[in-house]
Amino acid sequence: MKNLLTIQDLRVYYYLREGAVRAVDGVSFFMKRGETVGLVGESGSGKSTLGLSILKLVSSPGKIVSGKILFNGNDIAGWNEKKMRLLRGSRISMVFQDPMTSLNPLMRIEEHLVETIRTHQKIPKAEAKKKASLLLNEVGIPPERGGDYPHQFSGGMRQRIGIALAIALNPDLLIADEFTSSLDVIVQFQILNLMKKLKASHQMGLIFISHDISLVSEIADRIALMYAGQIVEFAPADIFFSEPLHPYSEGLLNSVPNIELSDQKLNYIPGMPPDLVRPPDGCRFYPRCPYGEDICRRKEPPLVQIEKEHMVKCFRYDGKKSRT
Amino acid sequence: MASLRVYVIRRVLVAIPMIFILLGIVFFIMRVVGDPVSAILGGHAPQEQIERIKEQLGLNKPILFQFFDYLGQLLRGDLGRSLIWGQRPVISEIWDHFPATLELSICAFLVSILVGIFTGIIAATNFGRFFDHAFRLYGIITYGLFIPWIGIMLQLIFGVYLGVLPIGGRIGTLMEPETITGLYVLDSLLTLNMESFISAIRHLILPSLTLGIYLSGIYTRLTRTHLIEVLNKDFIKSAWARGLPKRTVIFKHALKNAFIPILTMMGLQFALLLVGAVLTEITFSWPGMGTLLFERITYRDFTTVQGIIVFFALIVITVSLLVDVIYAYIDPRIRY
């Protein structure tokens, strides 16, 4: 099967007075049609910037410096605004983190949908309206509420509306940036289930950006774990959760509390992520790594291929799964 | 929409006590600042003449009675009579001068809004670049200028040095169009009097620019600030991500949201517009309410001054009422 999206050595820097912040620094990964990639990392790891750069919406002073973004086989990294605009919202769309602020407060829900549909499809207003009510119905909003304004809905309902907007034109790829983070846990799972259902019925690829590894485990086919602007491990989800290879993956999975164990000590990874203006020469995780060796300090580890679809950025793995 | 109607009705009801409080303030302040009788008769009139005038003006009654008499008069649309020059009814003095002020205010208002919003948009969409800094400076400088100074500079440049525009008055001599609305531009158009129309426009340009430029700075800064803020909001990011064209994102989504505080400012600025109009009129010998007010203050024509202030105050209240209604119409979240 052909890849829906392949990212090759992508670099996105923010040019500030203090220097270039290397928010995304040499990232590569891929996904197939209909798959879900869980893009996981702590805040500041560059995952949101990576999400935005796929739509080429990184705002100034951010800039895509180099790399390839192959979408359906075309390298869109070099596309101009005009071509990108036709792609945005129709082939690749995005759901944002805060449903309270991601809808225009002065526009009715229905207008949001009709406007989006009619931007990409030249169809009469009445027809777009009909489509809008079908979409609302699909995400579980009573269509007769289409005439209401955003402030008349709860957070969960607004996120449903955000999803309706994102799937309005049957995109091939949906980027969801922390789209359940501002909701309470019960609503989170409702929205996540809705997303699973829609993904199957629309056959969409999904990039699920989140800091919450247990939430990601509910939905992802592949995991891309980011640390300090780089992907440190990219693996099929089941393998990642059963046999994490990178020391950061290991530490992260260990720090998820398990409610079945009582009296448990809360595990965490000591230290802080590095400064992305002047990242360390060697491995960026080295200062926090329990297995760190001399070479890790001096040299940046390569992305080692363990199996066909499993990669890890660490000196401890030299093309084989066993630990050296 | 039913809730909008309820809101409007409620807002109108709130305006009524506001009007009475305001009338009270104007009335009592006018009693404090001087004695109308000595203004009419001078300081050395015989006692019985003073008593007669007091009787005639109703000034011998207790002050509250005077106030209620005055309110009664107002309700009948009577602002009293001028104390000088044949004692014309104040209301007809006002109607004679109001169209000139209205014409100037409308044009100046349009200049300030158009210039302010346009420069604000350019500054915001060029955030941190040359035009941003330039228009920010423009916003600060114009706000700090003194109206007569702007007026005199424009008169010097366009009237004296270049000699292309008249430096005072409302229209060329004997060119007044037939009165229909009292607005020369409109009247001359309605009567198809092209000569008057051109003359009226030429006379309007400098005063409107003077007042308009003075008032535009605050709109430049306000539009810039709020547009930048809105452009960074999630729903704008989301609009870009849906592939909407730039035009739609900036004007339909961003500007409309940024417009709400601008509208509030328009309501607040309206009083400043009237004050500015007074100064502009004096600078350009514009025969409007400002010139009238200035002239009557120097003659101590109490009733006319009081009438003009009441008239201005009523306009300000009406406009703020209107602004609130438009506000509620644009922003569905506002239903108090």
UniProtKB/TrEMBL annotation, chain A:
It is found in: Cell membrane. The keyword Nucleotide-binding applies. The keyword Membrane applies. Keywords: ATP-binding, Cell membrane, Membrane, Nucleotide-binding, Transport. Residues 7-253 form the ABC transporter domain. GO terms for biological process: peptide transport. Coiled coil: none annotated. InterPro entries: AAA+_ATPase (IPR003593), ABC_Ni/Peptide_Import (IPR050388), ABC_transporter-like_ATP-bd (IPR003439), ABC_transporter-like_CS (IPR017871), Oligopep_ABC_C (IPR013563), P-loop_NTPase (IPR027417). Its main location: membrane. GO terms for cellular component: plasma membrane. GO terms for molecular function: ATP binding; ATP hydrolysis activity. It is a peripheral membrane protein. PANTHER family: DIPEPTIDE TRANSPORT ATP-BINDING PROTEIN DPPD, OLIGOPEPTIDE TRANSPORT ATP-BINDING PROTEIN APPD. Belongs to the ABC transporter superfamily. This is ABC transporter ATP-binding protein. The lineage of its organism: Bacteria, Candidatus Aerophobota.
Automatic annotation (TrEMBL), chain B:
It is a multi-pass membrane protein. GO terms for cellular component: plasma membrane. CDD domains: TM_PBP2. The keyword Ion transport does not apply. InterPro entries: BPD_transp_1_N (IPR045621), MetI-like (IPR000515), MetI-like_sf (IPR035906). One of its GO terms (biological process) is transmembrane transport. This is ABC transporter permease. It comes from Aerophobetes bacterium. The lineage of its organism: Bacteria, Candidatus Aerophobota.
